[in-house]
Amino acid sequence: MTTIDYSAFDTPGRGRGLLDVFRYGYLLRLLIGKSTSVRYRNSVLGWFWSYVRPTVQFLVYFLVVGQVLGMHRNVEAFPLYLFSGIVVVNLFNEAFGAATRSIVENKALVRKIYLPRELFPIAAITGSFIHFLPQLAILLVVCVFLFGWVPSLLSVGLALGGLALILAFILGLGLFFSAFNVRFRDASNMVEIVRTVATWASPILYTWVMVADITRDIPWIFHLYMCNPVTIAVELFHHAFWQPAVDPSDWLGWPPAMGWYIAAACGIIVVVNVVGQYVFRRAERTFAQDL
């Protein structure tokens, strides 16, 4: 009787979740290349849209909030303050939406072959990050040539820390909502609401000091506001790019207990990723049937 060694084979449909992504690096690169090449296919301006859209958004906010509502009088170098926050929120909104749609948009692959389903939201997030880089490049040019910003280890570390926080947060949310979106297409509408809230509930059109003043009698609201990972990432970007460009007398400073807020945001990110991975693993069993 012939004995077959099955040790080199995996049971179909059984994987190790996010850990399997490292084993399928080639497929991940293919999916990332697909997402970046398809994004502006048959577009006249192509990649130039990555510069046009954030520039128009910045101009609208600057003219309405900065000039009409007078925020430029309350915040020194308000254009830089505004833009350094907008790029973070744009990354969150773009990557979160792309990750949520990733499974449904790749339903042909999901129904035909097995591969770690986590590859799809991760590829979507990575593709959005690639399209975020032109905005970051514009921010760096503005900082250096218009405001005399000189990079330091501290500013670079703060910027990288902000990126790490926001990308980790997006990953957890993306896993959860991409799985939810396969069964219930209402997820897309929920994501739009979250993206709208993220834009206005982060200190890009105003400062954290204003929130602290309004919530002085109910401080728990301010604590909850500051524990938001998007808020923390925006503040880290402000201190990386905006703070070095303004006079020390105009610096807002760190919010009180900022270390605890960062720790709370990291805790929220860990919980969101654990829950997102759990829900994703449970839901992926029926992805092919639901699609």
From TrEMBL:
This is Transport permease protein. It is found in: Cell inner membrane; Cell membrane. Belongs to the ABC-2 integral membrane protein family. It comes from the Bacteria. GO terms for molecular function: ABC-type transporter activity. The keyword rRNA processing does not apply. Residues 45-283 form the ABC transmembrane type-2 domain. It comes from Microbacterium invictum. The keyword Cell membrane applies. One of its GO terms (cellular component) is plasma membrane. Keywords: Cell inner membrane, Cell membrane, Membrane, Transmembrane, Transmembrane helix, Transport.
